[in-house]
From TrEMBL:
SUPFAM superfamilies: Nucleoside diphosphate kinase, NDK. One of its GO terms (molecular function) is nucleoside diphosphate kinase activity. Belongs to the NDK family. Residues 1-76 form the Nucleoside diphosphate kinase-like domain. This is Nucleoside diphosphate kinase-like domain-containing protein. InterPro entries: NDK-like_dom, NDK-like_dom_sf, Nucleoside_diP_kinase, TXND_domain-containing.
Length: 93
């Protein structure tokens, strides 16, 4: 099993903030309009699909999780206190 990245969006308007960090869906737009967005900075230009995705709503996230992972194989867990404050993780900017 490879590395796992977990994100906790814990604020008012978290989904809107996340979408702003991602930038426009179209890579050309992201590069010209929001050069500091995740899509502009980390997407590969010669790949024909959107490489960086974030669900727009909790309902959309559930549909997407169900598409890729069967219910029998998906078990999200959160350790007590693990979301109290970030530890030892530097943003990769």
């Amino acid at each position: 099993i490879g590395p796992v990245l977990a994100l906790a969006l814990m604020s008012e308007e978290a989904v809107e903030h996340w979408k702003a960090l991602l930038g426009p869906w179209d890579l050309t737009e992201a590069l010209s309009q929001t050069p500091q967005s995740f899509r502009a900075r980390f997407s590969l230009e010669d790949v024909p699909i959107n490489q960086i995705h974030g669900s727009s709503t909790p309902e959309e996230a559930q549909r997407e999780i169900s598409f890729f992972f069967s219910e029998e194989r998906f078990l999200p867990t959160v350790q007590p206190g693990s979301l109290d404050e970030p530890r030892g993780v530097e943003p990769a900017l």
